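An instance noted here:
***
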Amino acid sequence: MSEHDVQREVSELQAKSATAARIFDLRRIIGGLFVLYGIIVTIAGINPSDSSLDKSEGININLWTGLGMLLLGIFFLVWLKLRPAAPVRVKPPEGEDA
């Protein structure tokens, strides 16, 4: 195997590693789940029953919690968009020229 083939394989593996790091970034997972659950809870809070309002002393807990979850999820997704994960830099072993 020539030096050129080895360098090509290393660069391909680095590209795959960077792609995997972006896909499995926790901000994407947390933001997506908070947005999804926020939508569900907000829909549940749009038309509350009288019994649920009585339990919460007149405050529509589902609506406010759902809106808070939506905002937090959107924050995580915007943060991900503005500051994407940096590509992983692989150091060559000591004693070898880069």
User: Anything to note?
Assistant: The chain is about 70% helix and 0% strand. Residues 61-82 form the longest helix (22 residues).
